[in-house]
Amino acid sequence: MVSPPSNPHDAYFRCVMARPADAASEIRAALPSAITARLDLESLRLQPGSFVSQELRSRYSDLLYRTQLDGRDAFVYVLIEHQSGNDRFMALRMLEYVVNIWAQHRREHPDAELLPAVIPLVVHSGRTRHWTAPAELRPLLDLDESTYELLCPWLPRFSFLLDDVATLDLAALRARDLTPATRVMLILHKIAPGSAHLGDDMLELVEDLRAMEADPTVDLRPTFSYILIVGDTPEQDLDPVIEQLGPRAKEAIMTTAERLRAEGEARGEARGEARGRAEILVELLIEKFGTVPAELSARVRTADLDRLRLWARRVLTADTLDEVFA
Q: Where exactly are the structural domains of the chain?
């Protein structure tokens, strides 16, 4: 089993949705037709950066697209939520991100007198649970209804659009008007994690995979990386699918598998080196300072190589343990 990155689900989603054509198909499927009729989805332009804080990027991934709404500048902000449990305060979090998008726009356009519309969309692709958290601010306010009505003019009103992919069965997803890459990505989010039978389960995706292979602008490697990272299907058991694809797909899965094996070996070597350095550092600490508290020994044994190198240099000149670990 290949060692996974911190968040392969969001990484795969972001890789696919960073292509404007794939993003446009999901936006068109998720938003009401009355809105998409006014949006120029052909002019989607991905904006750089993320509005999700660093500590939450293991849980969420986001993309911001600039477009035109009724001929005016506008944005579509897409956030992916793949966790089995919902964030009860997602409405507040999305409001914060929308305000940050406006603040960024004001910094970039200080002379602008109006703010562009920002359409907030949450895509929930958890496998087993439907979305249960509020999609608007009102349920989060600790007010009875009569008091809320009195204060309503002075309280923020906000809600986000929700595409609860978790509630859709595979037939509904296959029937959606999506690009092949987007459809495959959303279906794999549902069927791939922990699956030992992807060789059979993916046979219904062959037509979409062939379309992806025929498009020279589509990189097949992220799809195969996701399958090999989150699934439990041995590489050779994917043959029923791969045999129905062309040489580009076969080359992509071979090079992807080789790269993941090399990365896994490198991570294993790094972990082994870190363990060896940690034991040496603990011995040096005991030799110089006598008894080392158990919590410090545990801290050393779980540290990465860069931190271990830093502490080892400090041992040479430090007079106390606190100076080593400051």
A: 8-245, 274-325
